[in-house]
């Protein structure tokens, strides 16, 4: 389905030709994210993503870049995580060269104007404040701080206001040089592709200099002997809650069983959490679970936005549903349903060129290899009820729980009692 080519400078090109389409996603993925930062430059990965759209030598203004993209009916965006950053333009297939040209110019020769940096500091500051004002968004930052502690994985992705205000142009130049190098990047093209697609990418990216790139410090596991609980006091009309544990990394063979466990526990309107917390008791509108693997660690969480007066009851139910999976084997019908749900979701997502570009591109920059969707689903199919139970037993232990709450509450003792029971 996909073709992988290495350019002379070490840059990886991944192509997926879908000739029945009239569109193409052009994406550049980089092994760069907030866990590569130091405290002094915490937030620069996300800030850099903003700056690449602020002008390059060939296209010196934001307006010029936006006008060119809008002028052909294309869309563009970017995203930064703890471990990767990506940039894309989705366009009609005949405009693939323009998209490749713009992206390459943005990343190779960004102006990083001091004036634009100062202006964007205000934008980033307001973005940080916006997230902090949104409990269902901010709780994820607080949860990762609770689970991962004072390590890069536990720091805020966007940094803090004080650090953001301290950045200089030299900080951005140094950061880019340390990570935006060919062997730490991939160009991904998905859609209706021209026959000369390889030479097209060579034309615009072959002059990207091959230089050594930085590695991040491995996550240092600290043995947990009792539940961690943190309440962020905020006057809200509901309690936002995340209950989670440290979990498996991206290469752990148990990751497939953890994914199936999440599907059973809290994904979809027939999941256990949805039925018990929302449908049968009416305690929440949004309730879900998720398994998030990183390169060298991971997390497994359950989230709910609960009625304030029912937050203790809601936590008890979530914990009970987690722990039922330790002692009661999943029935064959429920296991099959979870697997079919994942197959169906992947089939629907695979109709999107953006999804395919992200799936294959990010897989490569994180793991330096690609697991196809077909290979992934074969592993999901092999998961047994015994595998799911074993993973639940390994993960859902009271001393491993981490509980983050945002609510107008202060007393942690009721939650300590629930988690220690």
CATH architecture of the largest domain: 2-Layer Sandwich
Number of alpha- plus pi-helical segments: 16
Rg is: 23 Å
Mean pLDDT: 97
Total count of strands: 11
Uncertain runs: none
Residues in β-strands, percent: 15-25%
Indicate how many domains the architecture comprises.
2
Structure, explained:
- With 421 residues, this protein is α+β, with helices and mostly antiparallel strands.
- It has two domains: 3-205, 2-Layer Sandwich (Cytochrome Bc1 Complex, Chain A, domain 1), CATH 3.30.830.10; 228-420, Cytochrome Bc1 Complex, Chain A, domain 1 (2-Layer Sandwich).
- 45% of the residues lie in helices and 19% in strands.
- β9 (284-293) and β10 (298-307) form a beta hairpin.
Salient structural properties:
Cytochrome Bc1 Complex, Chain A, domain 1; 421 residues; 11 strands; globular; 19% strand; alpha+beta; 2 domains; six-stranded mixed β-sheet; five-stranded mixed β-sheet
In short:
This protein is α+β, with helices and mostly antiparallel strands. It has helices spanning 44-51, 62-70, 96-108, 114-132, 135-148, 161-166, 169-179, 197-205, 255-266, 272-279, 311-327, 332-349, 353-367, 373-382, 385-395, 413-420; strands at residues 3-6, 12-17, 23-30, 75-80, 85-92, 185-191, 228-233, 238-246, 284-293, 298-307, 402-407.
């Amino acid at each position: 389905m996909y073709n992988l080519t290495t350019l002379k400078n070490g840059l990886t090109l991944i192509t997926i030709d879908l000739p029945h389409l009239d569109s193409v996603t052009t994406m550049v993925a980089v092994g760069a994210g907030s866990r590569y930062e130091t405290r002094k430059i915490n937030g620069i990965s996300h800030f850099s993503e903003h700056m690449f759209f602020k002008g390059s030598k060939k296209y010196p203004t934001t307006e010029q870049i936006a006008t060119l993209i809008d002028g052909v009916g294309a869309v563009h965006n970017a995203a930064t995580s703890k471990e990767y950053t990506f940039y894309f333009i989705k366009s009609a297939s005949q405009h693939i060269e323009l998209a490749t040209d713009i992206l390459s110019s943005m990343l190779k020769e960004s102006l990083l104007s001091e004036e634009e940096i100062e202006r964007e500091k205000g934008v980033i500051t307001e973005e940080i404040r916006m997230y902090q004002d949104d409990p269902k968004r901010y709780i994820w930052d607080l949860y990762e701080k609770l689970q991962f502690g004072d390590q890069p994985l536990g720091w805020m992705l966007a940094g803090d206001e004080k650090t953001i205000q301290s950045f200089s142009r030299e900080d951005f130049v140094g950061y880019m040089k340390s990570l935006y190098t060919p062997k730490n990047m991939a160009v991904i093209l998905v859609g209706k592709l021209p026959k000369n697609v390889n030479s097209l990418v060579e034309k615009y990216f072959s002059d990207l200099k091959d230089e050594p790139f930085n590695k991040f410090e491995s996550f240092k596991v600290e043995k947990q002997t009792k539940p961690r609980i943190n309440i962020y006091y905020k006057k809200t009309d509901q309690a936002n809650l995340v209950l989670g544990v440290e979990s498996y990394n991206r290469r752990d063979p148990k990751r497939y069983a953890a994914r199936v466990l999440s599907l059973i526990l809290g994904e979809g309107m027939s999941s256990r959490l949805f039925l018990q917390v929302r449908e049968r008791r009416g305690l929440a509108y949004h309730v879900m679970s998720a398994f998030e693997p990183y390169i060298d660690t991971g997390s497994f969480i359950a989230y709910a936005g609960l009625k304030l007066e029912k937050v203790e009851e809601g936590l008890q139910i979530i914990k009970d549903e987690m722990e039922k999976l330790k002692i009661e084997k999943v029935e064959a019908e429920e296991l099959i349903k979870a697997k079919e749900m994942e197959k169906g979701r992947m089939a629907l997502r695979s109709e999107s060129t953006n999804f395919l570009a992200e799936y294959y591109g990010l897989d490569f920059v994180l793991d330096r290899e690609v697991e196809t969707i077909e290979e992934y689903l074969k592993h999901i199919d092999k998961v047994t009820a015994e595998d799911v139970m074993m993973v639940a037993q390994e993960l859902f232990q009271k001393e491993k729980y981490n509980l983050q709450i945002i609510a107008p509450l202060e007393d942690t003792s009721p939650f300590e009692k629930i988690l220690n029971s």
